[in-house]
Specification:
Blueprint (H helix, E strand, L loop, with lengths): L2 H19 L3 H17 L4 H25 L19 E4 L7 E6 L2 E7 L8 E9 L2 E6 L1
Parallel strand pairs: 3-5
Antiparallel strand pairs: 1-4, 2-3, 4-5
Helix pairs in contact: 1-2, 2-3
């Protein structure tokens, strides 16, 4: 069996394992194996193929790690618009209770509303910033 075929089989196995595990790192290592297969097609020695696989795989994993590290962290699930479509919606608060809560009708139901800690409650239009249990945490617009 040709060396390039072995590299392609290893690259395919890495891709299959990546699909089963759900991480991208095995896919990046698979790119290194594919680069080694291309080097084998070009007639490089086994030592060069190993170096190509190691360098391409390691550089791609390192590059992905650095890209991910620079990306801002996702907001907590209670304030993540991707997980809860009510985040960012507007509610109108007519009056606040003495305990710092208010009651509003939102999406056809009564909700208890609280303002962010340290913010003085004010009437008017507010934006839902977070949902904590059955309470809406709002910011004044």
């Amino acid at each position: 069996m040709a060396q390039s075929t072995i590299w392609w089989l290893i690259a395919g196995a890495a891709v299959v394992l990546e699909l089963l595990s759900g991480t991208i790192y095995l896919l990046l290592l698979g790119a290194g194996f594919a680069a080694a297969a291309i080097a084998a097609h070009a007639g490089a020695s086994i030592q060069i193929q190993l170096v190509v696989a190691a360098v391409v795989g390691a550089v791609s994993v390192l590059a992905w790690y650095l890209i991910q590290r620079r990306r801002p962290a996702d907001p907590p699930s209670a304030a993540n618009r991707d997980l809860n479509l009510d985040i960012g919606e507007q509610v109108v608060i007519d009056s606040w209770n003495p305990d710092g809560t208010a009651s509003v009708r939102f999406r056809g139901a009564q909700w208890t509303v609280i303002s962010r800690p340290g913010v003085t409650p004010a009437t008017g239009v507010h934006r839902v910033a977070e949902i904590v249990g059955s309470r809406l945490v709002v910011d004044k617009i």
